[in-house]
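Hi R.,

Here's the chain you asked about this morning:
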Amino acid sequence: MSPIGWLNALVYAAASMIIDDAKERRRNDPRAKREREWFAEKKIQVHRIKDAIVRARAELVRQRERRPRTDKDRRNAQILGTSNAAELERIAIENEQRLEIVEERIQLRKQEIRRKKLRKAFQAQPSLRVLKNGKIPRIDGPGADEIERFWEPILGRAKESKPRECEYLREWEETMRSEYHEFSISEARVEQELQKGIRHMKPWKAPGPDGIQAFWCKSIPGVSAL
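And the predicted structure, written out as tokens:
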């Protein structure tokens, strides 16, 4: 693999690691957990209401058509607690009203979450385009500050070094020059290889698997601010 290929692979691995770390933090966030539980509860509630409506309407249709009862019809009547037409109509209407209320609450909750995300997106990047279009940039990944904090203890701070005074580094350099003479470690060669790789990369917003820069841009919001 070429040096730029190794760089590409390393950055992909680093980005994936950061994304996994951010997802784990979101899973453990109490507020996000409460939101997930709320929506899960409402989903179950909607399913139960729709089930009651279907059972009541099905029994009413059977009675109007004067069809004989099947085992399924008997189970429906047992679950609903009645086979009286008036009671079944009442159950169906009440559950339809409940369904409308619950679905409206779900939509209101989604709109509230969207408004919060929009405000947060505008604070991070004040733009009339964001407000006019209502488009919310992806913010489910870590921002620039979080990326910096993640890498700081790993990469550390730049310090002055004198590699020629270190025996092991001198041996390593000589080994690299002798065994991998086709790869010069001069700054000019490194810059040339990097520029060659960059020229072959696709634009930032190109679709599909288009190199490390697009991966970062799509997967990690705020990375362009680094």
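The chain has two domains: 3-133, 186-206+213-225.

Let me know if you need anything else.
M.
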